[in-house]
Automatic annotation (TrEMBL):
Belongs to the short-chain dehydrogenases/reductases (SDR) family. The keyword Oxidoreductase applies. Keywords: Oxidoreductase. Signal peptide: none annotated. InterPro entries: NAD(P)-bd_dom_sf (IPR036291), SDR_fam (IPR002347). The lineage of its organism: Eukaryota, Metazoa, Chordata, Craniata, Vertebrata. GO terms for molecular function: oxidoreductase activity. The keyword Acetylation does not apply. This is Dehydrogenase/reductase (SDR family) member 11a. Pfam families: adh_short. PANTHER family: DEHYDROGENASE/REDUCTASE SDR FAMILY MEMBER 11, DEHYDROGENASE_REDUCTASE SDR FAMILY MEMBER 11.
Amino acid sequence: MERWKGRVALVTGASVGIGAAVARALVQQGMKVVGCARNVDKIEKLAAECQSAGYTGILIPYKCDLSNEEEILSMFSAIKTLYQGVDVCINNAGLSHNEPLLSGRTDGWRNMIDVSHLRETISYIIHNKCSSMCFCSHSCKVTFIYYL
C-alpha cells in the first residue's frame, strides 16, 4: 500500500457496509479518499472517527446522487480542482431493482446500471498510469429462476 500513500481515491456508496469499510481502510493507509453517497451524515461521522484514530489519510464526504449526471460531473469537477483527478475508483454504490428482467420496466434497470458504473473515471484511468478501478457489482443481479 505504500505506493498509494497520498494518492486520491473515490469510493462510491461510502456511507455504509463495504463502501464504508473500504473508505476507512484506504484512509488508514494514508490515502485522500472522497467518499460519496446520497446522504453524507454517516460519511461525516466516519471521517471524524478516522481523524480521531490518527489515520494518516483523510476522508472527504461528498453528497452525490449517482443517478444524476449533473451531480456526477460536479463531483468530478470538484475532485479535479482539489486533487487534479482520481488515482483509484471503487465503484461500490448500488441499488436493487425488484422487477423481473423480461417483464419489468427498462428505466429501472438503466438506473441500476447507471449508478453502478462511472464513465467519468475512465478519462483519469487513461491519462494516469497508476490508476485503478474496481467495480463492486453486488447489487446488479438478475434472478432467472422465474423463467426456467
